[in-house]
């Protein structure tokens, strides 16, 4: 059981370090642009866009937390702040008295619709438009392979 460590080769180390640095710099830039263009934080945008893509612009709070890989507590606190700003509303679940739903308000819908255009433009400017179609395809495949390994098939 005393196996030698499988150190990264120079090529593997270069790829790993490029990925790490890219994600840090890209996420920071996208967050700056999002705040400047729409006044939203990344967590705000993530909640709004997940709800915007959900049937009826609503979802069980526990499902939303699971989907975003957040704890129930973090989700609850963040939703409370968003509710105070009039972006979301909590609703009782008609089919399960124990469950709760969160839904976009009209203001929440308008907010995500207004934020989406400049956010997509930022993603294009700082990521998509820098890559060739072949690089985009390779990147998508790489991401899907890693995500599938970490989450299991179909998640």
UniProtKB/TrEMBL annotation:
Residues 12-148 form the HTH marR-type domain. This is MarR family transcriptional regulator. InterPro entries: HTH_MarR-typ (IPR000835), MarR/SlyA-like (IPR039422), WH-like_DNA-bd_sf (IPR036388), WH_DNA-bd_sf (IPR036390). PANTHER family: MARR FAMILY REGULATORY PROTEIN, TRANSCRIPTIONAL REGULATOR, MARR FAMILY. It comes from Streptomyces durmitorensis. The lineage of its organism: Bacteria, Bacillati, Actinomycetota, Actinomycetes, Kitasatosporales. Gene3D superfamilies: Winged helix-like DNA-binding domain superfamily/Winged helix DNA-binding domain (1.10.10.10). Coiled coil: none annotated.
């Amino acid at each position: 059981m005393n196996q030698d460590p499988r150190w990264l080769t120079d090529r593997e180390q270069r790829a790993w370090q490029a990925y790490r640095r890219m994600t840090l710099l890209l996420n920071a830039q996208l967050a700056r642009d999002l705040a400047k263009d729409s006044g939203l934080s990344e967590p705000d945008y993530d909640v709004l866009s997940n709800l915007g893509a959900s049937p009826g612009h609503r979802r069980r709070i526990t499902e939303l937390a699971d989907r975003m890989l957040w704890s129930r507590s973090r989700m609850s606190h963040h939703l409370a702040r968003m509710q105070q700003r009039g972006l979301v509303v909590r609703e009782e679940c008609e089919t399960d008295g124990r469950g709760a739903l969160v839904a976009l308000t009209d203001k929440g819908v308008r907010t995500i619709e207004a934020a989406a255009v400049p956010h997509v433009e930022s993603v294009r400017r700082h990521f998509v438009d820098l890559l060739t179609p072949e690089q985009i395809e390779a990147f998508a495949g790489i991401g899907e392979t890693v995500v599938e390994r970490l989450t299991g098939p179909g998640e």
